Model the fold of this input.
Amino acid sequence: MDPILAEIYSTILPAAPYVIAAYALMWLVLLAYVLVIVTGQKRTEKQLAALEEALNAKHKQ
Done:
């Protein structure tokens, strides 16, 4: 192996666990964010449906 490449790899590879952990943490945070957004959207859709039913019931009276 080229000595320059060996030096580069010896510098980069020790940091690999930290890079992998950072990516894993980023994906977990992104997944949690998406789940919070989806949950909020479903709750809002239920409230909107209830409001539409209430308006339709009031309009029919």
In short: The chain has one domain: 17-60.
